[in-house]
Amino acid sequence: MNKKLLFFGFLLLGYYCTKAQTVGASPEYIRALTSQWKGERFPDGRPRVPDDLLERLKPLSLEDVWSVLRNKGYQNQFEGNWQVVNPDSVMTGRVVTAQYMPLRPDFSDLIKEEGKKEGRGQHGGTNSWPIDILADGDVYVADSYEKMADGTLIGDNLGNSIYAHSHRGVIFYGSVRDMAGLSEIKGFNGWVKGSDPSYIQQMMLTSINQPIRVGRATVLPGDIVLANKWGVIFIPAYLCQEVVITSEVTELRDEFGHQRLREKKYLTGQIDSEWTEDIKKDFLDWLNHYPGKLPMTKKELDDYLKERNY
Fold this sequence. Notes:
The protein is of the alpha/beta class and 310 residues long. The chain has helices at 2-20, 27-33, 51-57, 62-71, 105-117, 129-132, 156-166, 179-183, 240-262, 268-272, 277-288, 298-306, and strands at residues 78-79, 83-84, 91-102, 138-143, 170-176, 190-195, 203-208, 212-214, 217-219, 224-228, 231-235. The protein folds into two domains: 72-235, 3-Layer(bba) Sandwich (Glucose Oxidase, domain 1), CATH 3.50.30; 241-306, no CATH class. Helix 7 (156-166) links the parallel strand 4 and strand 5.
């Protein structure tokens, strides 16, 4: 009986290995990777996190977002030390991943053959394949093993194509060419590890929308990215709403605390420790008379505060 089960197991393993020999991950596999997301999805299986959450994410600090993720057990979602094409711009979006490796002819031939079966473009290099599938709001994230010379994934031509598809940009654990040309593409941005005037050679695309490593971070297709001049954070799609509302409330708490400290209403220790009931009441009153527009709806705020001891 055990031998039969073992044989059946090998058959299943062989089946799944055969199914895995594709360039692009299947929608079923992406759904399995992101199974905790319960909302709308793209046809390729990636979570479709709403546009308004992407916008609300933009002004939030990396520290506040990182704090929420770490409290949820996600310790490996940040990478820093980037060269940024347009450092004063912030980018958020939905991740499309790509993996590159040093060229191995037999493997490269298999990838090209599989790409042909999948209907991917046969003109130009395989580094155009991830670009062809980008949708509005997507961010192209690639691991090209930090290769500099001869590892440039894009120049300004492909940069223009990326922006036309996604209205976003790229995050490459590797290099690009023509930073000057890329910086002139209005709206485009990029986080890269370096630039080089050479063109891409002796490397190959191995997968699209599979899990990849970007420095310290593990990245899945459909993750939500927050990128600014201080670094990049990858947020699991199912946590995005909680990350946004928690970070927004944290920043409101900080704003309130800073104001009250400037007014010398409370001592530093009172603001930095667990708040008394009087401070909590003062904070709620301050929120009710907030001079600007709150980043969340009143219902979202009330629901959040109801369940937390702030």
